UniProtKB/TrEMBL annotation:
Pathway stated in the Swiss-Prot or TrEMBL entry: Porphyrin-containing compound metabolism; protoheme biosynthesis; protoheme from protoporphyrin-IX: step 1/1
Taxonomic lineage of the native organism: Bacteria, Pseudomonadati, Pseudomonadota, Betaproteobacteria, Burkholderiales
Organism for this UniProt entry: Collimonas arenae
InterPro entries, alphabetized: Ferrochelatase, Ferrochelatase_AS, Ferrochelatase_C, Ferrochelatase_N
SUPFAM superfamilies: Chelatase (SSF53800)
Recorded catalytic activity of this chain's protein: Fe-coproporphyrin III + 2 H(+) = coproporphyrin III + Fe(2+); heme b + 2 H(+) = protoporphyrin IX + Fe(2+)
Name the record gives this protein: Ferrochelatase
Gene: hemH
Length: 368
């Protein structure tokens, strides 16, 4: 077996620590060609679709890619921003802010982001971190609730990469944080901020991404972790069981998925006389196609079309201060034992650099 080429090593180089925030991924552009390329990679993952390969390959290449790519591209175009894909934009900004928060807490670490499907790929990012001298890698999935279809797939990609590497770094992986106190607190503050501006709804709907029901019976903890997140958040908000509902969205194919399904539930609520619903997606830490198009547009149409009067979408955590702080705490907990804290001399040096930069900025401003 031929291993990947190692970067040139210099003796005496200080080993560094890196955090890699990994999200699902996104097409490079809202075009049929880009979406087709993305869907092919995503739907070829055996963690995502467990149908026998020969059967699934015929369905994927004969039906889904030829006919779904254009439709999906239209949906992506409806939520695309001047900066690009919302999911990629939010993930990149989260990584930047996380680096700053950890620095303020005294940690000298690199923070990068990667996508399980699309770019930047996990392999690209891990290769660059090796070049940068990172000997300790902590992988932080963007999924609070563990699922074999998401978190485990990240593990697969990380392990597959290092199976080709001669000098493997120390590696830690975060499995889940669905019940982490600060994550729940960040969700709570997000909801309360929305209610402070718009008032409370008749019902709060917590919509999570769906997976086939058989994954639950085969031992995947995702369903249970979604319900625990919802229960803990409802408790923090002071909601009774009759005031909120857990649903699952993005059903695909004819097989039974986790229920209740989001769209039919909203239609049923409207027909039963519920006038206002607020919908949030606690399983997504960045707004993306599944929240901005499927919920904020399609689900809204479902509810209002069935007789509902008022629909509110509560944005994902994105770059909110409580969420970035929660991420920093989560990372700190998983870096215990790693030498990431700055020494006194390093702190002094960084302060001198910051002061010098500030003085240059002030002189430039005065000159203008």
């Amino acid at each position: 077996m031929a291993f990947r080429k190692e970067p040139q090593f210099t003796h005496g180089t200080v080993a560094k620590t890196a955090i890699v925030l990994v999200n699902l991924g996104t097409p490079d552009a809202p075009t049929t060609k880009a979406v087709r390329r993305y869907l092919k990679q995503f739907l070829s993952d055996p963690r995502v679709v467990e149908i026998p390969r020969a059967i699934w390959w015929a369905i994927l290449h004969g039906v889904i890619l030829p006919f779904r790519s254009s439709k999906s591209a239209h949906k992506y175009a409806s939520i695309w921003t001047n900066e690009g894909s919302p999911l990629k934009v939010h993930t990149e900004k989260q990584a930047t802010l996380l680096r700053g928060y950890l620095g303020q807490r005294g940690h000298q670490v690199k923070v990068a982001y990667a996508m399980r499907y699309g770019s930047p790929s996990i392999t690209e990012v891990l290769d660059q971190l090796k070049v940068d001298g990172c000997e300790r890698i902590l992988v932080l999935p963007a999924y609070p609730q563990y699922s074999a279809t998401t978190t485990a797939s990240i593990y697969d990609a990380v392990f597959a990469h290092y199976a080709q590497v001669r000098n493997v770094p120390e590696l830690r992986l975060i499995k889940h944080y669905h019940d982490h106190e600060e994550y729940i607190q960040a969700l709570k503050e997000s909801v309360q901020a929305h209610w402070a501006m718009h008032g409370m709804p008749d019902q709060l709907v917590m919509s999570f991404h769906g997976v086939p029901k058989r994954t639950l019976t085969l031992g995947d903890p995702y369903h249970c972790e979604c319900h625990k997140t919802a229960r803990l958040l409802a408790q923090q908000l002071g909601l009774g069981p009759e005031q909120y509902q857990v649903t699952f969205q993005s059903r695909f194919g004819k097989a039974e998925w986790l229920q209740p399904y989001t769209a039919p539930t909203l239609q049923k609520m409207a027909k039963q006389g519920v006038k206002r619903v607020d919908v949030m997606c606690p399983g997504f830490t960045s707004d993306c196609l599944e929240t901005l198009e499927e919920i904020a547009i399609e689900a809204k149409q479902d509810f209002l079309g069935a007789g509902g009067k008022e629909f509110h979408f509560i944005a994902c955590l994105n770059q909110s201060q409580p969420w970035i702080s929660a991420m920093a705490s989560l990372v700190e907990e998983h870096m215990i034992g790693w030498p990431t804290h700055l020494t006194d001399s390093e702190r002094t040096g960084m302060k001198l650099q910051a002061d010098a930069s500030k003085q240059r900025a002030e002189r430039l401003g005065a000159a203008q």
